[in-house]
Specification:
This protein is mainly α. It contains 8 helices and 2 strands; from the N terminus they run ααααααββαα. It has a two-stranded antiparallel ribbon with strand order 1-2. The longest helix has 33 residues. The protein is globular and about 60 Å long.
Amino acid sequence: MKSSDIHWFKFAAPQNFYFLAGKMWPWFAGLATILTVVGLYISFFVAPVDAQQGQGYRIIFVHVPASQLSMFIYLVMAGWAGFGLAFNTRLSGMMATALAPTGALFAFLSLVTGALWGKPMWGAWWVWDARLTSELILLFLYLGFMALQASIDDPRRADKAGAVLALVGAVNVPIIYFSVKWWNTLHQGASVSMKGSSMASTMLTGMLIMVVAFWMYAIAIILLRVRSIILERERHTEWVQNTVRAEYAVE
């Protein structure tokens, strides 16, 4: 069967996407587990000690992927929310809702690991650095998005209100990314770019594996969460009731 023969738009229906996500998330979870084990082993036992930062630099193998995912997930969340606002699609709002907690987790992890890294490097747990401050704002945007949705009883109205906040807050993402170029900050610039990398090959390998591992985890947990959201929002439909009965019958 060719990919052109598959009617992809049918997965825009929550019912169809629910079963697709059920087939996909275990594969991503398995890849995340394997890659995390391999990535952590390379990062902490194979990669050499940094000449300037010593052993403390190893926090970047968690800090960098978490920071990247915190920004990218917000853009994806805003994209889904905006799509739902424009076309009034049910699944779009559900996906945005599912993305928010994972994005908030990565933003929090980015800040915590950044503090652990900053203490030995800068002599302080926290400084009002442009990148750190804008990352903190990103965490607040995630929390605000979730709080706003939780405060509105009607899911469709909650999706629309959250979409407006998500779209407005998206302007913060390029500020985070370009902050080290726009302002004189303590935060170091990127070690990996399109022009190449200043990192040793084993460091870079460990970093890339951890980035992919974080991606796999994010996809797996978001697919799993959106399945729960679909069941909750569609609980009055016949297909959900039949699905729940079938799952309990199997158990």
